[in-house]
């Protein structure tokens, strides 16, 4: 039996691939921006041009944390904004990985699986339902909904919540800065998913299905 009993998966770019170099260039992010501009227009009663300029400024000043920027600068309820801007239908804009459900099912026989993402829970729920994999996971953790910037604060929260030691855990993700480095800093075993090997992760894989080999062989 493998000794690692808890596996944390990033979602966007890990449980489903992103063809673009960055999530910021993906259809998901583009749709979120479009919905955000419409939301700002409606909430502030301004035209599209002004709303676009306002939101582009927010994105520049608050990278990845647009809701905090809108709340701070415009007095917009961030939770209301997140529900409206991220309630995106994944159909046609995210790609399924053939065999992912079988791998997750196998992993659940010896491990507890969790999704750890900076994405809002509404988007996490939509993706999990669309991919048909929600039942494989013991929990979903959203850094956005917990008001924690990136995963530096999220990992200690999760370990405390599930009662696990870092050495018992894996973090699997496609971003070194956001997934790998914060996890490894507190002793979590790390698996980087990317086109090339990572110099900072414990393991590197080219596709998520290769995780099976690491978990079984380690």
Précis, in short:
The chain has helices at 27-44, 48-61, 66-74, 78-85, 100-107, 121-131, 154-162, 176-185, 211-217, and strands at 6-9, 112-117, 139-142, 169-173, 189-193, 203-205. The chain is α/β, with parallel strands linked by helices. It has two domains: 6-17 and 95-217, HAD superfamily/HAD-like (Rossmann fold, 3-Layer(aba) Sandwich), CATH 3.40.50; 23-85.
Could you walk me through the main structural features you see in this protein, from its secondary elements to its overall organization?
- The chain has 218 residues and is α/β, with parallel strands linked by helices.
- The protein has two domains: 6-17 and 95-217, HAD superfamily/HAD-like (Rossmann fold), CATH 3.40.50; 23-85.
- It is 43% helix and 12% strand.
- It contains nine helices and six strands, in the order E-H-H-H-H-H-E-H-E-H-E-H-E-E-H.
- The chain has helices at residues 27-44, 48-61, 66-74, 78-85, 100-107, 121-131, 154-162, 176-185, 211-217, and strands spanning 6-9, 112-117, 139-142, 169-173, 189-193, 203-205.
- The protein has a six-stranded parallel beta sheet, with helices on one face.
- The longest helix has 18 residues, at 27-44.
- It is globular and about 55 Å long.
- The chain starts with 5 loop residues before the first strand and ends with a helix.
- The mean pLDDT is 91.
């Amino acid at each position: 039996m493998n000794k690692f009993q808890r596996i944390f998966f990033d979602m966007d770019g890990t449980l489903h691939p992103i063809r673009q170099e960055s999530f910021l260039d993906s259809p998901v992010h583009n749709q979120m921006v479009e919905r955000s501009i419409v939301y700002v227009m409606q909430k502030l009663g301004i035209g599209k041009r002004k709303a676009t300029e306002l939101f582009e400024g927010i994105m520049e000043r608050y990278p990845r944390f647009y809701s905090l920027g809108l709340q701070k600068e415009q007095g917009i309820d961030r939770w209301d904004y997140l529900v409206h801007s991220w309630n995106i239908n994944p159909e046609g804009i995210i790609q399924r990985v053939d065999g992912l459900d079988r791998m997750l099912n196998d992993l659940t026989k010896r491990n507890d699986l969790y999704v750890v993402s900076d994405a809002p829970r509404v988007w996490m729920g939509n993706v999990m339902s669309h991919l048909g994999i929600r039942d494989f996971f013991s929990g979903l953790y959203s850094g956005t909904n917990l008001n924690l910037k990136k995963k530096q604060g999220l990992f200690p929260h999760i370990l405390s919540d599930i009662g696990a030691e870092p050495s018992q855990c894996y973090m699997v993700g496609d971003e070194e800065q956001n997934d790998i480095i914060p996890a490894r800093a507190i002793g979590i075993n790390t698996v980087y998913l990317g086109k090339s090997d990572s110099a900072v992760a414990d393991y590197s894989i080219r596709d998520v299905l290769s995780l099976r080999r690491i978990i079984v062989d380690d």
